[in-house]
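Contributing new complexes? Match this layout with zinc ion.
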Amino acid sequence: MKFLPAVVLATMLALSGAGDAQNLPTLGDTAREDLSPIMERKLGEQIMQSVRRDPDYMDDGPVSEYLNKLGNLMLEKRPDARGETGNDFEFFAVRDPVLNAFAFPGGFIGFHSGLILAAQTESELASVMGHEIGHVAQRHIARMIGSQKFDVLIPLASLLLGALAARSSPDAAMAVIMGGQGVAIQRQINFTREAEREADRVGFQILRDGGFDTAGMVTFFGRMQGASRNYTDVAPSYLRSHPLTSERMADIQGRMMDQRYKQRVDGLDFYLMQARVRVLQDSSTQGLMDAATFFAGQEHSEKTESKLSAEYGLAFVAYKQHDYAKAQKLLNQVVKQVEQSVRQKNMLKQTSAFASLAIDISMGNKQFDLAIKQAETAMQQLPLSRGIAYQYAEALIAANRSAEAGLFLRDQISLYRQEAGLQNLLAKSYEAQGKQALQHIALAEAYALDGALPAALQQLDIARRDPDVQYFDLSVIDAREREWKEKRREEMLDEKKKK
Ligand SMILES: [Zn+2]
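Output block (do not edit by hand):
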């Protein structure tokens, strides 16, 4: 029950009957039988709104930046995977020890923390990523859903919400699912065999063209199969939906025959990301102690990257335990070693892992000015890091420089319109400045981006009634209200149709 995406995919399958690879429409076909790319993306975005609200969604700058960097590196070799509408992909992690990965409609690809930690090399992780990209590139999900009208898809969203609620109240959610259309779907989550082979084929090409070790595909799947024999409590459901048949293995090995073996040296960022995932996967008191024990063992590794990431992991654990002095000392040690290493020193400019932790520690120590300086330096080196941008805004607000934070955030919002987190921070900066009308307008924007229109409209009402509301704000409120009420009307029509 923990694996909600399976439920979603399963539901989609149930709605469409079966994914029949035989009658695929050709591109540009007006009477297309698959879900249109725009609808596919819309559906994916709707699902993601719920996923982002889930406490097990891993909202961590360095981790998601790493996953997206790796994913985009692979997509460069396969631009057609972005589809007719040129979708941006989004790669993300969720806290879940079960070895699994999944693709939502529209290019959203998720990885369980368990799978990320089970990968011994970047090529192994990339092999799963390539396979999932393959499913998206071949539009397997869209074909499974078929030509359903969007209002038929709306129940999916409520079903998904039920699955999400399962984390807090399993019985209630099960009732929702079992009572709905999901009854007959248990265990029918597999793509067709052809689809799996296609995804393998595309994944293999991406892996090879991306310069990864193609043997990673075989070793990783092989190890997952081994794990399924040894640890029944973390049965790798990836293998349940992707059985490693001898046929499939032979296919992959056949492709490898004409490849020269490619030794690949993984970057330190892969290991640092794993260290973070290990800590974030379970930040309970016991979980942190277990992670520390793991890192203490890993510290004795022969491999420089493993050693450095183990020390980094210990620093991160100390931070999570609020022992900022220890965290600082350990982090300094790692950074010093990285600076002195010819091979690793560029890493300081290539991953936000070091800067992010340094800023967090400064914030923990209430050294806000230092945190701001660290964030400014980091932003120059890593201008695309979303995590650092958020940390910078948070540090400015904490340092009572909310007006500056507001300017920075509005600038960010013009670049990243879809990020509700920016609007939430903007609301915080207005609150600190005592600008309540603007605070509620920003909150309204955040709710709207999260897909919660009733709450968004409520915030507009609060803003309008504020005694300090400015004439200009009122016109913004009116325009937004018209737009969202219209959108809400459409939503309600859809909901009615479904009944
Ligand atoms: Zn697959």
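Reviewers usually confirm one structural detail per submission. For this one: The beta strands are 90-94, 101-104, 108-112.
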